[in-house]
Amino acid sequence: MHATRTGEVMAAIRAKLTSRALVTGDRLPSIRRFAATMGVAPSTVVEAYDRLAGEGLIRSRRGSGFYVTGTGLPPMALAGAPSDRAVDPFWVSRQSLDADPATLKPGCGWLPADWMPHGALRRGFRALARAGDAILTDYGQTRGSLALRRLLAGRFAGEGLDVAPEQLLLVTSGTQAIDLICRFLLRAGDTVLVDDPCYFNFQALLRAHQARVVTVPYTQSGPDLDAFAAVLREERPRLYITNSALHNPTGATLAARTAHHLLTMAAAHDLTIVEDDIFADFEPEPSPRLAVLDGLHRVVRIGSFSKTLSASIRCGYIAARAEWVEGLVDLQIATGFGGPSPVAAEVIAGVLSGGSYRRHMDDLRQRLTRARRETARRLEPLGIRPWLMPRGGFYLWCQLPEGQDSATLARAAVTEGVVLAPGNVFSASGSASGFLRFNVAQAADPRIYKVLEGAMTTSQA
Amino acid sequence: MHATRTGEVMAAIRAKLTSRALVTGDRLPSIRRFAATMGVAPSTVVEAYDRLAGEGLIRSRRGSGFYVTGTGLPPMALAGAPSDRAVDPFWVSRQSLDADPATLKPGCGWLPADWMPHGALRRGFRALARAGDAILTDYGQTRGSLALRRLLAGRFAGEGLDVAPEQLLLVTSGTQAIDLICRFLLRAGDTVLVDDPCYFNFQALLRAHQARVVTVPYTQSGPDLDAFAAVLREERPRLYITNSALHNPTGATLAARTAHHLLTMAAAHDLTIVEDDIFADFEPEPSPRLAVLDGLHRVVRIGSFSKTLSASIRCGYIAARAEWVEGLVDLQIATGFGGPSPVAAEVIAGVLSGGSYRRHMDDLRQRLTRARRETARRLEPLGIRPWLMPRGGFYLWCQLPEGQDSATLARAAVTEGVVLAPGNVFSASGSASGFLRFNVAQAADPRIYKVLEGAMTTSQA
């Protein structure tokens, strides 16, 4: 046994803890894999892991490897400058949000500004300038605008989901909605189930909660049911977070049969489900929803208006069991004070109640259908193929040619002013390095395909 | 020993854990006090506490009683209807925010709508209706509007606090600012120091973080320095959260000498300080600031525009060490996605950069000075006296006549449509039951004094 090499392996794991590349509940790399990574014998890794376990930093779980305990970890990672960062779940967000205007962003998660309903929003702000004093300056009610909650309840009733306005809580974003629910339901170290692949920010959020993340493979009709059954049985997750309509990043649709089986299993294992409905209005026709089947018993519906109306006017919602909403209200007061912005809700309610919203969404859907076909057509000569042709929305989850690594391409492309969304940021199991997610509404510029081709050629050379 | 009585005491404590009346790090009621409350012998409480400790739910700490461990606690409290609730730190918030328009709110924490600068805000919304497309619909940069951050940096420079715009992070509220910092720096069970009394929502926030709260008595010139030294030595808090300018609820001002000594002790014990500067613009002239003395080394400055401009346009800020801001940006992405509302920042920046803001604040200060005197004058015949006549702001921390309990008065007054702010919601040590906090801007209606007089008479009867 080389004492120095053992020390090196221990230092490498400690560095992962310090940088929060590994957090409470995470599984350590397997002994075989980490031995290969470090160029040492497996017995050296065994020795290092045993010593770290002796220090209490990790612990072994029979038959399933070593896990981070959460003892003695430092505060949240102090990240370096964005461009130095690893291609992790924050990478796409930071590169996209802080991009200069000249940067092309086929990897980002929103529509271009000129696809959004500016006329209706401008009318909303003019109306606000004439609104009553209280709405312009007061905190508003703890659950947020009753007018907007009634509008939402009316829309949900049309789907067959009966929700009282008291069961709705307005928040500042879809992400904040999930964050509040996690705060309400989870404790550090709890196990949470997500799809593989899933929206990358679910992973970032769950890290902030020090949750242990487990995954289920996502198929073209929803989560793989056998794998779902196995993970419920073996991992006992407290929560499952998913998108049903137009799943991010795959664009897949949950099948009715899958939805029913999934809810039956959830009931048997007392699993709570957060159904993120943020892309619902992009569907050509409604697809099965867990919240509708379940009636908000163990499903929480969340959503926002960032993708359809405005991400600048921060407004989202939670629909949940009445007694849970009471607890969520307390949490929102404790952690943000008051409800969400009354002026934001006023503008959103104004746009939603007018006839222009339906026309806006009709236009968007048609425009996206064209853009989806066009993007697939332009990726074809590069050997990049959609895993699925989605029914709606703005994502295209694409498989790269054999041997290409999406993180390598993304790192190369960003130096040329193109932000891509590499597969592994969506995969908590690290199994999607051969995929890229394209936003078809942000993929019109020919330069994107030139940069992509150049990066693929270089990486193959 | 009566087994049944021991069981009753255990059940009573378990109920407090289930309802989160007690959370991780909280001290259990003293044996003597709880024996009196339950009408049992102290030895029965000793037996019950020992058994609960045996179950791991609580643990004893030598010489200082029993504490909640955080093992096996349920999810966040499922609260009952607001009116059934205990007079706890959420009580004033929920009663005030969800009050109907006819309710009088001398206990609330904001100015009446008609004291706010509606002209400037309406101009801001009209300008927004003519602004560029991107600001109306895009997420904006991760740190929020550069224009507003530059304005803030300019104002801070005028105080002698040099801050680069990169050291500023915009958020949706002052409370969210503190919440992000707590998420960044704290782990469940960490000890946090607050003033006694302090803003009640600090306690609610720290409960959500499962922090252990310790207190230092607040004097008319800041925290008591001897007590501060003792608590640093004995309790080793990780963080101290305070208001320096126009302390909430007392209206006291931090003295320069106190500020200097406090920072010296903080350095010796590696204590981080959050200085909540939300009332700064209400001061007649600037008072000493920890952030200015320290230069943002171990002090984090937070603030918002909810008290001076609008609570409906949710916008606050954090000024901190550059490397901390990087971590806070990640956390804000993970838990809320993107930065704070660009439209909110645009309106705030517009109002702050115009000349009208200074005039608005001049008017407010004069109006508040008159209201403060008038409120004190009207409380005098009831035997209710200010603990201190503050230099500015809208709070008056008042002592009740001997024998009056502010929670009893608050419960009686709310049934008559008057929301009061009883002392103990501000005191983590429960030592301020003889105080009420009045908002002098919300205290003009004579009915308030009638209801108060009636409640005091009834409670004495």
Automatic annotation (TrEMBL), chains A, B:
Transmembrane segments: none annotated. The keyword Transferase applies. Residues 3-71 form the HTH gntR-type domain. GO terms for molecular function: transaminase activity. Keywords: Aminotransferase, DNA-binding, Pyridoxal phosphate, Transcription, Transcription regulation, Transferase. SMART domains: HTH_GNTR (SM00345). This is PLP-dependent aminotransferase family protein. It comes from Pseudoroseomonas ludipueritiae.
